[in-house]
Design a protein that fits this description.
The chain has 519 residues and is mostly helical. Helices cover 61% and strands 4% of the residues. It is built from 20 helices and 5 strands. It has a 3-stranded antiparallel β-sheet with strand order 3-4-5. The protein has a two-stranded antiparallel ribbon with strand order 1-2. The two termini are 32 Å apart. About 5% of the residues have low confidence. It is a multi-pass membrane protein. It comes from Bifidobacterium [indicum] DSM 20214 = LMG 11587.
Length: 519
């Protein structure tokens, strides 16, 4: 599945040979970081001819950054990932290199999602279905073929989630193994007390080792959780929304541990969940997460001309004066970034409310051009205008079906089995990656931000498919699955030209606009 999805992402990756949408920030910044260590300002135009800088950059004039540091509003991890792609695949003169890192991230995400689905449902066909849906979704394809930050946020979050599933399996096995040992000790103790009552008091005082720890073993720390904290630190170092994912994933993981104590049979599971799982886990994960995030700013610390690097020196007695100058300057820089993110309300023709993201009602047009000739599919209709588009629209059937399946899954659990931990796994990405945006409904946001929840929309479909596998006949299940996958696959084939900048007749582009809000 990863190989198949990789082909959809890497073939013609350098097309269009132009800076697409917000690539204007991230490609140029990443190139400047690779050359100088920090983002730099760029002129708006180049002389002679007042050529726009994006056009000049795409034509190969890539070294025109200014000496002044640029005010950037996202942490640097994602841009360093893009810079690595530029380094490995030919530099900024090659559009393939601009997007190589995001395409690789999107491809690896398919493999990670297959592993997540396999751990959740223990069924290879369902895991393959998850990978297939991830491979052919339009938002996943477009975001892998465009050099933006959100794909890195998604893959780091998915990697962290897979690690937390690994921790759950490890903790579950440890709890059950310890329970078997504890049960044997209690059984011996009971038999001795029954056969020789006069020894009871002596055993209570002198043989306390026979008593079991009724709350179970210590499972708050594992290497799985360590790696999860690192990946979530990298996610936060890509975009601050990774902090919400850290909070949601860590909380859900602790709840899984506490509930597993309860299921195995240990007493005091709720209290143990707080004091034996939650607090110790926080004491381990928060420093690792925060340390990883802080380490991502190493380049900023190393360069004295970084943006606001000298703020503390020029503002003595201001800010958090108990911090060293470097950290004090970084904190003030973060305050500037926070003000930007919380007050951004400028109108944009493609802005969309987070409420609509699962339904993909307002996709973002990344690129749209009319051509004077008729290459590619335009040759089939020489009398029609020829256009090239990149539209960040998910496969509507995947997103609409995923939304329905998540609602149905919640209904099933509330009605039947409220303890199904897999539902919370399915909801985890939505809780951490979508719900926090509800506090910013007045902020300028875009549908392509929803790439972070795509894996969990797919898992919602897988959850209901797994339910159907156990509750309907095998014949009906197979017919339903194959029919659904074929229809979804044909829909992706239909939209693929609009996701990958293929020249198409205007009427062909127009028939893809199923909703007026898609235009």
């Amino acid at each position: 599945m990863a190989l198949f999805g990789g082909l959809l992402r890497f073939i013609r990756l350098g097309t269009p040979h132009a800076i697409v949408f917000d690539e204007t920030y991230y490609v140029k910044d990443s190139w400047a970081m690779l050359q100088t260590g920090e983002p730099r300002n760029w002129p708006k135009t180049l002389s002679p001819g007042n050529i726009p800088i994006d056009q000049a950059f795409a034509q190969g004039n890539v070294n025109q950054w200014l000496n002044s540091a640029e005010y950037v509003v996202h942490p640097p991890v994602g841009k360093w990932c893009i810079a690595l792609g530029l380094k490995l695949f030919g530099g900024a003169e090659n559009p393939f290199a601009w997007r190589a890192a995001t395409a690789l991230a999107g491809t690896i995400a398919i493999l990670l999602l297959c592993r997540v689905a396999l751990r959740l449902f223990r069924n290879l066909p369902i895991a393959m279905m998850a990978g297939f849906l991830m491979s052919i979704d339009g938002l996943g394809i477009v975001m892998s073929r465009t050099s933006l930050l959100d794909n890195f946020l998604m893959i780091f979050a998915l990697a962290a989630f897979l690690c937390l599933l690994g921790h759950r399996d490890w903790a579950r096995a440890r709890l059950r193994a310890s329970w078997r040992v504890d049960w044997r000790i209690e059984k011996i103790h009971y038999r001795v007390r029954t056969a020789i009552p006069w020894l009871t008091e002596e055993m209570d005082e002198d043989n306390k080792a026979l008593y079991t720890d009724t709350t179970g073993p210590f499972i708050a720390w594992s290497w799985w959780r360590t790696w999860a904290a690192i990946f979530l630190g990298l996610a936060t170092g890509t975009k601050w929304s990774g902090a919400y994912l850290f909070a949601a994933f860590a909380l859900i993981s602790v709840i899984w541990d506490a509930w597993e104590r309860h299921k195995v049979g240990y007493g005091g599971w709720f209290k143990a969940g707080i004091f034996k799982d939650g607090i110790p886990a926080a004491l381990v994960m928060i420093p690792i997460w925060a340390g990883t995030y802080l380490a991502s700013w190493t380049g900023w610390f190393r360069h004295d001309d970084s943006y606001m690097h000298g703020w503390a020196a020029s503002h003595p007695g201001q800010g958090l004066t108990w911090l060293p100058e470097g950290l004090r300057s970084l904190v003030e820089y973060h305050r500037e970034m926070w003000r930007f993110h919380t007050t951004l309300d400028a109108a944009h023709p493609y802005m969309s409310s987070p409420l609509t993201w699962p339904l993909q009602t307002r996709p973002t047009s990344f690129y749209w051009q009319k051509l004077t000739d008729h290459p590619g599919l335009c040759a089939i209709s020489p009398d029609s205008p020829c256009v090239v588009a990149v539209t960040s629209l998910g496969n509507p059937l995947i997103w609409w079906l995923g939304s329905i399946c998540i609602v149905l899954g919640i209904g099933l659990c509330l009605r039947a089995d409220r303890s199904d931990w897999r539902l919370w796994a399915t909801m985890a990405g939505l809780i951490g990656g979508w719900l926090p945006w509800y506090q910013y409904l007045n902020r300028t946001t875009f549908t392509f931000y929803s790439i972070i929840i795509l894996p969990w929309m797919v898992l919602g479909i897988c959850y209901m498919a797994n339910w159907a596998r156990h509750n309907i006949s095998r014949t009906l299940y197979r017919q339903m699955m194959w029919t659904t996958l074929i229809i979804i696959g044909l829909t992706s084939l239909f939209f693929y030209p609009l996701w990958t900048a293929m020249p198409v007749p205007y009427w062909f582009w127009r028939i893809h606009m199923w909703l007026p809000s898609w235009i």
